[in-house]
Amino acid sequence: MDPDRVLEGLDPEQRDAARSVRGPVCILAGAGTGKTRAITHRIAYAVASGIVTEQQVLAVTFTTRAAGEMRGRLRALGAPRVQARTFHAAALRQLSYFWPRVVGGPEPTLIDSKLQVVGRAASSCAIQLDRTGLRDVAGEIEWAKVTQVRPTDYEKAVTKAGRTAPMAAHDVARVYEAYEEMRRDRNLLDFESILELAAAMISEHPEVAQRIRDQYRYFVVDEFQDVNPLQKLLLDAWLGDRDDVCVVGDPSQTIYSFAGATPSFLTRFSASYPHATMVRLVRDYRSTPQVVRVANGVLRHARGAAAEHGLELAAQRPDGPDPSYTEYDDEPAEASSVARKIAALMDSGTPAREIAVLFRTNSQSAAYEQALADTGVPYTVRGATRFFERPEIKQAVHTLRGARHGADSEPLVTTVRHILAPLGLTETAPEGREARERWESLAALAQLAEDVVGERPDATMADFVAELDARVATEHAPEFEGVTLASLHAAKGLEWDAVFLIGLTEGMLPIIYAESEDQIEEERRLFYVGVTRAREYLALSWSLARSPGGRKSRRPSRFLDGMRPASPALAGDRAERRRQGTVMRCRVCGNTLTEAAERKLARCLDCPADYDENLLESLKEWRSRTAREQNVPAFVIFTDATLRAVAEHV
Ligand code: ATP
Ligand code: MG
What are the residue boundaries of the UvrD-like helicase C-terminal domain, all occurrences included (predicted)? Predict the structure, then answer.
């Protein structure tokens, strides 16, 4: 492709970035400013200009989905053979290539169930852990490994990092040591040791280092604000003494520091490489001005690196709808209302894949899965139970591996469907949440077979199984077409037309165990990531009680303070009115109205019916009734003047 054509569709700063073909280059910019787009075009530009070949490029992305999207864009830009992978996938590939050729001996295999090994390690130390305990300790071991802390140093490191260990730090260190021993004895690899081993292989085997450095000459790393020391170690091993690397990131989106990532590799990039080209992008191409305003509002309150770099966004897109802020009485009411709004969006033409429901913890997902299933909306859950750990998928992969030869007389997709049918892949989706989930994951496998055949019409069962194995190793789950349900962590780098940020209460966002200022700041950045995923439609919501009739003890997230539009006409203190129980309710369904709805006195957003024209009269009626119920004079609730102002306003 003509290099100049590759630059089309970039703004002047993005072009500068793309034309800075020699590293080191650092693009530091806010969400939606086109960082990922700029580096993708930069790669294509370097290839089109003949500066590098496609095979010499290694682009590292944060998730397999991001890698897939980048490969798709590169294909469209005339560079289909560029490798875009996660750190893990790239390391795994290098290990599986060089291990038998250079290192020799039995090849390590991937851990099947990490929690099981952690559990055995704990038992060997006479420590009993329940499932939550196991997860917590596994998380600590992960943190220690990515920050390069050995078991003997764990206690000291935990104190220094200001972390709260899930049990006595001394015990975590013992389990960590036992876990590593067991893992090595059994020749097992966990996620972290894939990176460790790849880096060690490069540093201990000069011929491997030589081969890798001969091949890769052009490195690009996206989401660099969330790189951890172990990933940095591997990147440095790839680079050797060269500095042809381009990194891209946004300090305001650092959301993995709890897991050992640090934005300082990004923010100190120019200190490490004083001759680096630094690029700033400020135009936000993703979101409407209404969404950008919310994002900038979140940033204004941020502290630390996010604030120092002042990455205020300048909206480029035309106006869109105002973000909505909705308070519900309880969680099921919130979930069913969101499901109805999603169904309405789909009815008005927004495809399901362009809609996402984002939450802080995976435990919040179930109510939405149920509500969407009840409403008949297809959905797919990201980052919950890992796809390849689902029992039906384990069984399916096992069966497919065992199926191989002779069946090739029939088309691959038909064979795959036949094999999956007894596991629950019926023609149409069954009723009930569990059966439906099972069906959807099997359907995703069948869809994957179709995709493989789409790319290679002569693909055989062996090809399909090879594709599956590669995906199992890198946890690259196939996509199912539907509304996305995802944790905020799993949503980074992605975008949707419509985003519902749900469950925004104190205790959920910020999460209850976020106590220190640093932890609260990380929660704020998570909120920022969530807000900036929306292109057009952003709905923020929370509920006051867990279940219908339950105690309304929840408070809206502090991150919403000052964000919900204030109303001059209804200047009365809403919090105070809520305390008095005089918050307005929708006349049709009885739901509490949001401040925005109160201000406009529009109908409750959930209700199809409108208010009647005799607004003032009905307002007065509502006021007298409430006053009677509350046993207070009517003017305490609203004066006549206020009601008139409101009625005129509408
Ligand atoms: P994040 O920080 O969330 O990862 P980002 O900075 O990587 O965001 P991109 O995903 O590259 O941003 O771009 C955001 C959206 O804006 C994408 O839909 C992209 O195609 C679009 N976009 C980026 N640059 C331009 C441009 N110059 N003209 C038009 N659209 C653009
Ligand atoms: Mg990006």
Answer: 289-536
